[in-house]
Write a structure and sequence with these properties.
SIS_dom; Rossmann fold; four-stranded parallel β-sheet; five-stranded parallel β-sheet; 2 domains; 12 helices; alpha/beta
Length: 327
């Protein structure tokens, strides 16, 4: 996990600058009305990051569709819809059925995967390779960040004006310093944590979902992800118990007020609060999706160190396997 998370910025840079215009043309997609993402686990968190970026840039609705709609049910109409499947392995039965079902219902399917010639790829109209190389640790790191990069490259094919910003962000992220100045403090907070809220807004919420998942699967810590706009509607009450709060700040101007409010409220209630920003490691002027990827790149090493300090093996958690086969 240490080696693979260290490779993540370079994987992101390659994925985010790939030219997918020909792949998009192969789908034959025209008169696009909506984009639906289909994924599970860390891939679904990456899809959440991408959804905010795509909606802002394209003006199209984009949201997550449960794979069970196709794997257990009869599916939904997909005319005028692009289905974006994200799966590092491309092997889960429910995603294979979803790709097949989406096409049968009139949708166009693009898959983001890291495994060449996977079962999902065989059912897709086009595949965007993450090209991260083998990922041996059970917790996905470089493939998650690479999935965000691949999605940004797809967005650049849909919206050519976005391409320059994606490229600039890739160059910045490729040179990011992963040693966050607050790493030691964050690890100390996590080592005494009992309950953790990971809070973000916009693309930062997708990053929060991924960080909460990693804290559960690597560190066996109870962690929940919330949008900064939702966490004050009830979940704030849990601050009456010992609560740790990690705020993921993508530094987009429109999210500052809600993050500031959440930070103030949790600090007043004496929670352990830490706020992380890409600029903490000198990463400036990133697109919101790239900023979310940068936050993940900074936090993965801390999750790893915390897991080891707690006596866990983050490369092979007891209850997890690299490929999760669900229906």
């Amino acid at each position: 996990m240490a080696r693979e998370s260290a490779e993540a910025p370079a994987v992101f840079a390659r994925a985010a600058t790939a030219d997918h215009r020909a792949a998009l043309e192969r789908t034959g997609v025209t008169d696009l009305h909506a984009i639906l993402t289909i994924a599970r686990g860390s891939s679904d968190a990456a899809a959440s990051v991408l959804a905010y970026e795509f909606m802002r840039e394209t003006g199209l609705p984009m949201t997550s569709l449960p794979p069970s709609v196709f794997s257990l049910g009869e599916g939904v109409r997909m005319d005028g819809t692009l289905a974006l499947l994200i799966s590092q392995s491309g092997a889960s039965d429910d995603l294979v059925r979803s790709a097949r079902g989406a096409r049968a219902k009139g949708g166009k399917v693009v898959a983001i995967t890291n495994a060449p010639a996977s079962a999902v790829e065989a059912e897709a109209d086009a595949t965007l390779p993450i090209d991260a190389g083998e990922e041996r640790a059970v917790p996905a790191t470089k493939t998650v960040i690479g999935s965000v990069g691949a999605g940004m490259a797809l967005l650049a094919a849909l919206v050519p004006a976005y391409a320059a910003r994606a490229t600039a962000s890739a160059e910045t992220l490729q040179n990011i310093k992963l040693d966050h100045p607050e790493s030691a403090r964050l690890q100390a907070i996590l080592l005494r944590a009992q309950h953790v809220y990971v809070i973000g807004r916009d693309t930062g919420f997708g990053a929060a979902q991924e960080v909460a998942l990693k804290l559960k699967e690597c560190c066996a810590l109870h962690a929940e992800a919330y949008s900064a706009s939702e966490v004050l509607h009830g979940p704030l009450q849990l601050v009456s118990r010992q609560l740790t709060v990690i705020l993921l700040d993508t530094e987009a101007g429109e999210v500052q007020e809600s993050l500031d409010t959440a930070e103030q409220r949790f600090t007043e209630k004496r929670a352990d609060v830490i706020r992380l920003r890409p600029s903490d490691v000198g990463a400036l002027d990133l697109t919101p999706a790239a900023a979310a990827a940068a936050l993940l790149a900074m936090i993965y090493p801390v999750v790893l160190a915390t897991a080891v300090a707690l006596g866990h093996d983050p490369d092979a958690p007891d209850t997890l396997s690299k490929v999760t086969r669900t229906t």
